[in-house]
Amino acid sequence: MKFTVNRTAFIKELNDVSRAITSKTTIPVLTGLKLVAEADGLTLTGSDADISIQTTLSIADEAAALSIEKTGAIVLPARFFSDIVKQLPEQQMTIEIVAGFQTMITSGSASFTINGLDANSYPHLPEITAANSVTIGADMLRQIISQTVIAVSNQESRPILTGVHFSLNEKTFLAVATDSHRLAQRTETLSTDNTSVADVIIPGKSLNELAKMLENVEEVELRITDNQVLFILGKTLFYSRLLEGNYPDTTRLIPKESDTLITFNATELLAAINRASLLSHESRNNVVKLLISESGAKITGNSPDVGRVEEELHVKKQEGNELEISFNPDYMKDALRSFGNIDIEVSFTVPLRPFTLKPVDNGDSFIQLITPVRTF
């Protein structure tokens, strides 16, 4: 194998593929980056067994200035290789297998020789056909991920809750996540009829990495099998394993009616809760309290060791019963950030029942739910 390539174009693809590579794997070959040089281009692959990312540099891509002198394949130690490539002195670099699995990297006057591994020992990526697929806008997918992945659980004791539940039918794309203390649900109507029906749970970790790769992409094709999902982002393939099991029925958790309804600007409320949490974080239970009365709404935070905070909130609209409710401010901040600078409707039933947040102008397409904290 021998090829020459523009280093800037190569590093861009290397950075994407490196998202899937970790040193914390029990399979030594997966700590490496797989390079395959073929007549029409160069393929880079990285994997940690849960996530796999593959991308291709084409010889037709003028910016890549790719020239393949000899085809072949090698697995190179990802961390060392990446560090070397980013420090090379010139824009052009050449990579060549010189003996066995020894690989030489040259650029300008610099030359490195590193030991690689046999590419045949690298696990094959699954072949996922287009039989069960759907195409959605990348911006929409990125927004869906950011609005739901915040509610996945970090506790491996209930692995099913460490993922986001994606449900697809002919017209609707539903995404929901919960860690049993909070819930985030987003529903999107698909612009074209979708022939695929799917009900899958994708690890939150996978979706976080995928979201970082969606910036310069217009559309994403989703392909689903029994235990894998494939996201096609132009020339880049992003594979993730699926979580096995049945996701809990979350529809029953969302209250159908409310006794108290109050409207805030999400950014203003977020700023107030940020201030209240300055003291609540010093307290062992990390709780702030919302008081709703005829005269308006007030938020308070108290730390016996530090002091107390109290702030009147700017209310856009209010109706229903008076209420006093306590909650974890960190959950509330995560939820509010997902809305951006819009007006939201917060609906309460009773002090110990979950309450919901949703956009004023968007019906039930996006809902955040938070379970209050018992303080007595």
Automatic annotation (TrEMBL):
Chain ranges of the DNA polymerase III beta sliding clamp central domain: 136-249
A GO molecular-function annotation: DNA-directed DNA polymerase activity
Top-rank taxon, per record: Bacteria
The DNA polymerase III beta sliding clamp N-terminal domain, residue ranges: 1-126
Keyword Transferase among UniProt keywords: yes
Any matching Pfam family: DNA_pol3_beta
The name this protein goes by in its record: Beta sliding clamp
Gene: dnaN
